[in-house]
Design brief:
Elements (H helix, E strand, L loop, with lengths): L3 H25 L8 H23 L11 H17 L2 H19 L2
Helix pairs in contact: 3-4
């Protein structure tokens, strides 16, 4: 069994590190009037890189040979792409794509 003190300290350290990482850019760039170009560049590029990394991570173990031949994953990816092209709402696309995948693997491709 996990010691409660150990669990509390683990959560406290994780929270402290998260808070520090959130406030670090404000502390480092405190005297600057304009946001540095490298920070603006990362702000534009990293969301797309993160999404691409998540897609690769989610599809890395996809096996097209046995049934259902990757159909739940491919259908769900199509739902995400179509929803995002239609509504331009990332959260909606991710939630409905995940729901589509869960419905497909739980009830359609059993």
């Amino acid at each position: 069994m996990i010691n409660p003190i150990h669990a509390i300290l683990t959560v406290a350290v994780s929270a402290a590190v998260t808070i520090l990482l959130r406030f670090l850019p404000f502390l480092v760039f405190r005297g600057h009037r304009k946001t540095p170009a490298v920070v603006s560049y990362f702000g534009k590029v990293l969301p797309y890189a993160t999404m691409a990394m998540l897609v690769v991570f989610c599809l890395k173990d996809l096996n097209l040979l046995p049934f259902p031949h990757g159909l739940p994953e491919l259908i769900s990816c199509g739902v995400v792409v179509l929803l995002h092209a239609w509504r331009h709402n990332t959260l909606l696309s991710m939630i409905l794509g995940t729901a589509c995948y869960m419905i497909l693997i739980q009830s359609v491709f059993v």
